[in-house]
Task: structure prediction
Amino acid sequence: MPQLGDATRGRILFGGDYNPEQWPQEVWPADVRLMKEARVNSVTLGVFSWAKLEPRPGAREFGWLDRLMDLLHDNGIGVVLSTPTASPPPWLGRLHPETLPRDEDGRVEWWGGRQHFSHSSEAYRRYAAAITEDLAARYGSHPALTMWHINNEYCTYDWGDEAAARFRRWLKNKYVTLDALNTAWGTAFWSQGYGDWNEVLPPRHAHYLKNPTQVLDFRRFTSDMLLECYVAERDIVRRHTPHTPVTSNFMPLWVGQDAWRWAAEEDVVSVDLYPDPRDPFGAQSGALVQDLTRSQARGPWMLMEQAAGPVNWRGVNHPKPHGLNRLWSLQAVARGADAVCYFQWRQSRQGAEKFHSGMVSHAGAEGRTYQEVKRLGAELHKISGDVTGGHIQSDIALLHDWHSWWAGAQDGRLSTHVDHPDLLRAWHRALWEAHLTTDFAHPEHDLTRYKLVLAPQLYLLTDTAIDNLLAYVRGGGTLVCGFLTGIADEDDRVRPGGVDARLRELFGIRTLHEWWPLDAGETVECDGFRGTLWSEEIEAEDGATAIPYKGGELDGLPAVLHQGRAWYVSTLPEPDALRDLLSRIAADAGARPVLDGLPARVEAVRRGDLLFVLNHGREPVTVDVPGTHRDLLTGERVTGRLTLARYGAAVLRP
Ligand code: GAL
Result:
C-alpha cells in the first residue's frame, strides 16, 4: 500500500490548496516564484474545479490544468491532485435535480454554494466517476502528481427519495427481516411498527421526538454512503496509479463520519484544523485533533488545511498574532504531521471566502502573513530530514467512538449540557496540562500496549467492546471511565441496571439508583474538589468508594469509585481536579510526563528521538531540559536550560 512517505520522500510537505483558476494566467508565474521563495513543495489543485474542467456535460477542458501541472513540475513543486466532486457545476443540478440533497424538512439544497450533492444520487455518482476516470487517465503518469485528494470534507446529508431508497437497501442488508428491524428500533414504542419496507424512511421532520435507533442508523448509513462515494473514486484513481497514495481530508472531530472506518480506507489520513487564535485552549484543542488524526493514521499524517491568518466563518475572525502560525505548525509536526499545508495559497479576491486568509494575503508578498510563511518554510526545510517518518510513543489512550457519540447525543436525554466532544476536550486537556502524551483508540481496538486507558464517555458500548475493556484490565491495564459509560447496547437499548452489569462489577457499583444531572454553572461538592455537569446516586460495593460526595442529596455516596485497576468517575471534576486525579492515576500506572516540572502553557512532545518544546504563552519562559541537546531550528547547543520567547519553539536532538 502506498503511504505518506511516498509523497514526502523525506521532506515535510509544505504548501496548500491552490486555486489558480480564480486568477488570470499572468499571476501564475508570480505564484510559483513566491512558492519557491517560501520553499513550498506541494500544492493541492482542483478541489473546486469541476465547472472549469467540465463546463458542459461530458466536455473536458484540461488545457489549463496541463499548463499548471507542467509549470509546477518544472519548478519542483509536487501536486496533490483533487477530484473536483465536492462542488458539482450548475448544469448537473439543472439536468438532474435528483442530485441535489434535501434536508429533513424536504427543502432542496440548491447550487450556488458548494457540496450540493446527494451521496445517494445515481446520476451524481455516475458523473463523479466519469470526471475522476478522465482526470486519473490524463494525469496518472504526470511527474508532478504525488498524491490524490478525493472530494473535500465529505459532510453532506440527504433525507430525499433516492436516499430513502438506499437507506432501505442498507437496512435490509443489516437486518434482513422487518421483524429484526422492528426489534432493533424498538418500534413497539409509540405505535411505530413497520409492516412493509416501503414505510421505512429517513428520519424526516416529525411532530415530536424521533425514534432514536432510526436516527442512529441514519447516521451510520450517511457515513457509509459518503464512504461509498469516496471508495468509488479512490478505486478509480488506484487502478490508474496503484503506487500513488490517496487521501480525503477530515474536518476536525467532525460528527458526520465514522473516521475510524474511514481512515482504514485511506493511504494517508489528513485533517483540516482551524483553532481560534483567541481561544485560551486553542493549542490544546489543536493537540487533541492532532492526536486523534495520528492515531487514525497509526503514524505520520497530513495537515491538509490550516489558516495562515483569520478564517471567515466565526462570528468574529481574529488574525494570528506574530509567531502563532509558526508555533501551531510546529506543534502539528511535533504530534506527527509530515505535511503542513493551508487553505489556501493566495487569498481570493472574490467569492464567499475573500476574507479568509491565504499564505499570500491581500497585502501580497510584503505582508506579514507571507513573510512569516516564508520563514516557516525555511525552518521546516531545515528540520525535514530529522523529523519525517518519526513516531510518537504514548502509554495512554483516550477512547472515542462515533457510534457512541451519535447515540448519546440524541434528543430526549437527561441533559443537553452533556456534550461528547466537550468531555473529550476536558479529559484531553487534563492530560495535556499534565504533559502526558496520549493516543486515541476505538474501544474495540487492541489496547494491550497502553498502561492507562481512559473513556471520558462511551454511552454506547458493544459487547465486544465491553469484553475488550474487561480483558484489558484483567491483563494488567488501568482503566478510567467517566459517567454515562456502558449505558446502551449497539441498538441504543438501555442495559439492565442502567449500566452494563459486567462494568458495574468491574467498578464496584452495586446499584445505580438515579442519574443527577447538574444545571449550567451548578457544582456538586466532592471530598477535595467540585464536580460539574453530572452526578450520580450510586450504592458502592464495600471498599469501592475512592472519593465521596460531600453534603447535599448525595452526601457520602461515591463520586469516584476504585477497584483494583478500574476507576469510575461519576461527575466531571473541575479542570484542576481532573488533571490532578488523572495525573495520580497515570503515575500509579507508570505513565510518565514528557518532562518534569514544565510550566503551564509549555508543551513538550517526543517524536522519534527529537524533543519538541513549545511555548504557548505570551511571555518568554525558561524550562529545565536535562542533558545536552542541539536545537535544530537555531543550531545552538542547549545544556540543562532552555529559554523560549513568547510563542517560541525548539526542536531538540540529544
Ligand atoms: C475548509 C474547506 C476549504 C475552506 C476552508 C475555510 O472547510 O475545506 O475549502 O472552505 O474550510 O476555512
